[in-house]
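Re: weekly structure request thread

Next one in the queue (421 aa):
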Amino acid sequence: MPPYRKAVTTICVLAPLFYIYWKKLTAPDSLGGFLAPVTGDVFNNTLGFSKILVINLPSRTDRRDGMARAGAVSNLTLDWIDGVSGDQVPDDIVPVSVRLSAGAKGSWRSHTNALRAVVEEKLGSALIVEDDIDWDIRLKSQLQTFASASRTWLRESKSGRRRIELPAFIRPSLLGNRASKIASIGELEGEPEVDIFEVLTLRGIDVKAQSVYGNGWDVLWLGHCGADFPDDRSRVSPLKVTILRDETVPAPKHLKAHPFALQDKLGQMYPPHTRVVHAASGNVCSLAYAVSYEGARKLLQEFDAKFDSQWDLMLQKWCDGGYIVKEKSRTGWNLGSGDDIDRRHRGSSPVCLTVQPPLLSHHYVKGGASNIQGQGGGYAKGTGTPYIRLSVQENLSRLEAGAPEAEMVDQLPDDGDTIWN
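Done, posted below.
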């Protein structure tokens, strides 16, 4: 055979093999391709975000000490944002018509300072948390599952689907062992996760082309004390992504944020030990939420000089599309009305996702009451952390001593009392 024919034959044989190998390497559902390192980002020391920002009043050294210890045993790196008290907020930047407490003013300014840090430092994303929160020792594995659900929601939210079930939750190891890998619904159905390849071309911004949580979101509201399920009347997608048989989810009797609150509807609507990811709707308490760079920029633009309610209620209204200004015309801003507003908002509303039950929650310290008022009125006097089973705060001494997971205390066992008794 002439040499040139041998060369052509060799190319014809090897080219398909190289193509197959390349597709396998770069396919988003390939364990050896891009998905593996992206999913692994959840296990880094900032949970897959650029930074974890903790809001802490400098005077509350006790809370900073507690958060520092919890972060250390969880292999997390925390950055601190100095909290602002209400008397530090100048009266001339607060509308005269607003009559809210000094605490509410301080909270608003503290959170907007955190948003400003994201924009100034050009962070791709940040998890903003308050200094009295708690989480499960399995948080990193929980977030791995949440990341799969959030990517699925971002891909399918405009498809018209109402509900998607992820596979049964695989039991994670202590503090998020990498061995537990949850496939996304796209992988199960053989559909490529195209969103994982979207390149966010924000000039000079520390953003990864492949976000573990998906691209295009503004807020991931991971810690709250109550949320509604969106429906057909909502401005946001009604799609719900469910994670079944999640043993880190407490039994329905424990799904209550506050002793004066109603029982969460989650326990009535879904089988026990189910977690649901959906568009944020009616969320209250800004205990922990992640923002993308674009989300932080939009929020700062909206609220750097606006203060008309408590911070969590302003964030709730923003996520619900309540602050959206209609498209600008030559004669000014067209605000629209009625059904026209609702129809046009669907395509322009902020993209905020949340999870029920929350992954981070308020920790009620032993021997003391919280000064946070709950849904339904009244002040909590319980001890522990609602929604969190293997609490880091409740097991802090055991974790620091290197105790195994089998020796951790489950503060919300299926057959145990609720923390509000």
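The chain has eleven helices and 13 strands. The longest strand covers residues 51-56.
Next request, please.
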